[in-house]
Specification:
This protein has 15 helices and 12 strands. By secondary structure, it is an alpha/beta fold. Bound molecules: guanosine-5'-triphosphate and magnesium ion.
Length: about 450
Amino acid sequence: MEPIIALATPPLKSALALIRLSGDGVFEAVAKSMRKDPENFSKKKIWVGYLYHEEEIIDEVVAFVYPAPNSFTGEDVVEISSHGSMIIVKEILTHFYALGIRQAVNGEFSSRAFYNGKVDLVEAEAINDMINATTKESKNLALLSLKGDTCKLIFPILNWIDETLATLEVNIDYPEYTDIEETNFKEIKAQIEEKISDLKKLIKEGNQGKIIRNGIKIALIGEPNVGKSSLLNALLNEDKAIVSHIPGTTRDVVEGDLSLNGIPLHLLDTAGIRESDDYVETLGILKSRKSIEEADLIIWLSDASNKEENQKAFEEVCKGKKLIHVFNKSDLIEGKDDGKLYVSAAKNDIEPLKKAIIDILGLDDSSFETPSFSNARELSLLEKIKITLEECKDSIENGMTSDLISASLQEARLYGKELIGQDVSMDLSDEIFSRFCVGK
Ligand SMILES: Nc1nc2c(ncn2[C@@H]2O[C@H](COP(=O)(O)OP(=O)(O)OP(=O)(O)O)[C@@H](O)[C@H]2O)c(=O)[nH]1
Ligand SMILES: [Mg+2]
């Protein structure tokens, strides 16, 4: 393959930088640049020496040599570790560009690894998830996929589809054996029901994995002055948003991230919602409404000491959303109503809310250890397989013929193959890898 090059470490000043090259002729290019014998270059794993551009030394570097097929991409790969000045990095890259090695595009190393059979698509996506992980838990889940545990989850369903298709072929080829067909259909229907329930479980686990990997967006909403910004600060354990006794303090959305029991939470503190004549405040309230739309979970905050709130209006605003209704300023009231969730942001008494967040996400300890298909692409394919099997079941119930049922199963099989990255189109995989970093 055409040789490519990219900086694999961040484009910032650091002790060292790692530049990766892959493809035809990279050994020769690096050997010549380091004034080493190209014939013997792949015989050693590590070379230390100066890297030259024409007669000028660019830097003293270490080159790690990975001959095909035993490299990440499956091609000849060299990783050059240089000193981490961006001037040096730029000089090295420019030097190799001049030798006809082009800059890699996002994810090109991973896409080559995929096309050369070094990783399956789910493993390649797991590498990206590892890079993007923000908590130990999300990194660990990605690691399970990288080890290949995730792909295996769909194998029993794919194998069953293959076996069932083979059985149906017999019916199509020998239609006179109608009694065989009937018994088979009864059995197949029962098996489909079982597979649909397995798929539902996979989808549920995938959605839980998605929460652990990507976290969730939470909007804090409520009337002005109920203590939303105080609650944001208490959750973040940081004096991030301005708090004041003046209603209408927050105008722009204030954002903050935290990890709660290993789940990344992205908080949005919003402007208090009320009728307002103030132009800027009205803009803030529009942003609050937008945050509600974007959020996975709404925390609707009320002031426990204020009985005047227009609760109906908020119920309307939160309709259809995952919601926790919290009463703040519990320190100001005497008796508490049963069934209500109280906190005091000012006194940092917020544990009940943290527990409620964990509870509403429905995660248990096993969710953190279960490999799952948890990105949007994978989940949508699982959904498609499930829908196709449901259609297939309907077809059997409606007395459809073997060839129609067989066609539905073929379709489910294609979705399954796409899920694990077999038979995917070039466009699709390009789209997937374009979300990766350059150098990966
Ligand atoms: N007693 C008591 N006061 C609180 C509590 N939480 C917040 N406050 C006070 O309530 C007032 C409003 O707090 P903010 O956090 O600014 O309220 P907000 O909901 O962000 O208000 P807007 O940004 O105007 O919508 C401030 O004076 C806070 O000190 C609490 O738990 N107890
Ligand atoms: Mg505020």
